[in-house]
Structure formats: C-alpha cells, structure tokens
Amino acid sequence: MDISEYLPVWSRLTEKEQDVLRKNASLHRVSAGEAIGGGAGKCTGLFVVTEGQIRAYLISESGKEFTLFRLLNRDLCLFSASCMMNSFQSDIMVKAERDSSFWLIPAEVYRTLMEESVVISNFTNEILANRMSEIIWLMEQHMWTSFDCRLAAFLLEESALEASDRLSVTHEEIAGHLGTAREVVTRMLKHFRSEGYVALSRGFVEIKDRKGLQAAYL
C-alpha cells in the first residue's frame, strides 16, 4: 500500500513533492470509537481513509452531537488540519465509527506543499469547497426538512452503509447523528413501527418496509 494510490493528483506532482509525501505520510490504524482529531486548537494533519468508516461531527456545550459527514475509503479529511489554512478555525471532531486505517500527512508538511505547489493548493481548495457545500446542504435540511423525513433518510442511508436492513444503532446514537434529543428519536421510531416501516429491539432498528418508508417520507 502506497500513499500514491490515494491522492488523485499524484501524477501531476513533481518528483520532489512525491518524495516529500512518501517520506512523511504514515499509515495509522484505529479501533471503532477512537477519537482521531479535530476540535479547536488541535491540528492532527490531513488524512486519507484507506479502510473503514470515520465520522466528523460537532458537539455543543451541553454535549449534544450533530453529524456533518462520514468518511469512507479514499475520502480526505481537511478539518483535522484546519490550522494550516489561514483564517479558518474548526471545532469539528473526528472519530472512527468502525475499525479504520488512514494515511496521515502532518499539517506542517502539507502546509509547505500547499504554499509551493499550485496543484496541491487547487486540489485542497476544491476539496474544501465541496465539503463546505455538503455541510451547507445538511444545514438547510436540518432547518427546512421535517424530522420524520430526515430520520427516514438517515435509516435508509445507514442501511446502505451497513448493506443490511438490520441496523446496529441505538436511539441515542441516531440522536447524535441528527442533532436532536433521544426522546424525539424514540417517539418517531415508534410511529414508524406503528406504520409497519420498522421493527425495534434493544440496540437495533430493522427496516421492514423500505418502499413504504421511501414513498411516505422521501
């Protein structure tokens, strides 16, 4: 496994830039639930996921969480290295949802490459712009879309990620993803159950009527 396999602009870099990345990038493995980086004042570096699933989220002063996006194979995370971008501060937390591995490029190394390479600078700005667009879209959904529709969309997305209709997720975890209270999630899931869309058991939600759920809420 080589870092060159995970950077789409690799062929456009100079030999010197490629050498710097190869010498400084390190492969890391983390267990599910392990914090990777993020938060104000922390600057872990840029990382590229090679396996697993990683969650980026915000956490309020009261402890309420809100998922911004997930990172899967070959996705890059810039928010864990926000200190290398001028006038950009991030309180975004990053944690592994499954056993995962990733290439980590130290922030100071990547910042130097950004300053010296137009290719890397443009690539970084493109990633940041795309990710910010996703976050803005998510915030719009949070503000303008009813909770039942957001919950239905989450369950269907989670089903796609797990490749199963039986989802290993608690009401508390769903609340953390959607930025609401556990009681709200429980109440809506019970409504979904009464309509025959899902079945509920301790630590699991099972989708029983996928087409009905999609037709009613999406």
Q: Could you characterize the architecture of this molecule?
A:
With 218 residues, the protein is α+β, with helices and mostly antiparallel strands. Helices cover 42% and strands 23% of the residues. It is built from seven helices and eleven strands. It has helices at residues 15-24, 107-116, 118-144, 147-162, 171-178, 182-194, 210-217, and strands at residues 26-30, 35-38, 46-51, 54-59, 65-71, 76-77, 93-96, 100-105, 166-167, 198-201, 204-207. A four-stranded antiparallel sheet has the order 1-8-3-6. Strands 2-7-4-5 form a four-stranded antiparallel sheet. A three-stranded antiparallel sheet has the order 9-11-10. The longest helix is centred in the middle third of the chain and has 27 residues, at 118-144. The N and C termini lie far apart (40 Å).
